[in-house]
Amino acid sequence: MFRKIFSVIKNKFFITLVLFGVWMIFFDKNNVINQIELRKNLRQYQKEKQYYQQQITADSEATYDLMSDSTHLEKFARERYFMKKDSEDVFLMIKKEKEKKK
Angle 12-22/2-10 helices, nearest 10 degrees? Predict the structure, then answer.
């Protein structure tokens, strides 16, 4: 049995296959370790793409609302840019952060 295993290991095709496998796993430009990292990055980029597509959809809806309805435009201007009517006063309330303890 030992001779059978030794003859398989001594076979030139087996040696070539082992060397090819080692080369592809560690030394090649597109090695397995690099491929794992690339797939991880791909998953991260797909999540970012999905997030940005959702943001684009939400912004498109907000833009449509602002362009089509003047009450939404007035509400947006009041909340975002602190605009007011001539007969109004606007008070801003800013929360102070607690000082860090030393």
Answer: 60
Residue closest to 53 by CA, chosen among 39, 65, 61 = 61
Query: What is the C-alpha to C-alpha distance for residues 97 and 77, in angstroms, rounded to an integer?
Result: 27
Name the pTM for this structure. 0.55
Q: How does pLDDT run along the chain (102 residues), one tens digit per residue?
A: 777 777 777 788 888 898 988 888 888 888 888 889 999 999 999 999 999 999 999 999 989 988 998 888 888 888 888 777 778 787 778 888 877 665
The whole-angstrom separation of Cα 93 and Cα 83 is: 15
Distance CA 101, CA 19 (A): 62
- DSSP letter for 23, please: I
Place of tokens 């095709």: 13
